């Protein structure tokens, strides 16, 4: 009996750091648009607190699925959860709770050599459904259009699909890419390309195109004047508690919202 108690004590001592580590572990998965905010905030948060924060991408759909499966603390999403997703989640005992952590505008980008400066929603729909195939059809150079899109697991794709395509199918020849970085890079390397990305992913290698004569900016996105404005979300299972609440409170703090702006997005404050 004595040896049994000693063995049990040793097991408890040996496993206690693991138990503590689990309590101080925070995992986030999902949107590649939210990814730079989540990563930068995680680094700053870990500098202040004894919490290990792990951040992964994969797309909004991946994050939402992980939340529904209870395998993640926070799901990053660049779109609101769908009603059917919320219904399925609740049937599994998950209560999705949304936190809008930043403002964004889906930004239309073309190669820097492209002369087109403005497109309408109708133009964009025509391009992405294959009705417009050459830039000279909309006032540009005589150059075939290379259509670049996000893949279907992307929240950015979902919002673009809703606001621009109205549910119409993207042309079969479109390149469906898995991240904002991939879209920006491909557009930058392809003279006839067009793509759409989160505002924070715009680089000098791409050129922003106005939408309905409106450029994405702090004023036009916050007011909703820019037609492709949206919010970026973090979802938790029920109201955030413990380390999850601490991390979200940090993001909403002045320091956290400064990080949002440093990553090229717009504060919700």
Describe the structure.
With 269 residues, the protein is an alpha/beta fold. It has 2 domains: 14-103 and 231-262, Periplasmic binding protein-like II (D-Maltodextrin-Binding Protein, domain 2); 107-223, D-Maltodextrin-Binding Protein, domain 2 (3-Layer(aba) Sandwich), CATH 3.40.190.10. The protein is built from 10 helices and 12 strands. The protein has helices spanning 2-23, 35-48, 60-68, 83-91, 121-129, 155-165, 180-189, 218-223, 242-252, 254-262, and strands at residues 25-30, 52-58, 74-77, 96-105, 107-111, 118-119, 146-150, 175-177, 193-197, 206-208, 210-211, 229-237. The strands form 3 sheets. A 5-stranded mixed β-sheet has the order 2-1-3-12-4, with helices on both faces. A 5-stranded mixed β-sheet has the order 8-7-9-5-10. Strand 7 (146-150), helix 6 (155-165) and strand 8 form a beta-alpha-beta unit. The model is unreliable at 1-22 (pLDDT under 50).
**What percent of residues adopt helix (DSSP H or I)?**
40-55%
Distance between the termini: 62 Å
Spell out the helices and strands N to C.
HEHEHEHEEEHEHEHEEEHEHH
Number of extended strands: 12
Strand content: 15-25%
* Rg result: 22 Å
Kindly provide the name of the CATH class of the largest domain: Alpha Beta
Known CATH architecture of the largest domain: 3-Layer(aba) Sandwich
Oligomer: single chain
Average pLDDT over all residues: 91
**Which class do the helix and strand fractions yield?**
alpha/beta
Strand order across the largest sheet: 2-1-3-12-4
**Based on CA inertia axes, which overall geometry fits?**
globular
Number of helices: 10
How can the largest sheet be summarized?
A: 5 strands, mixed
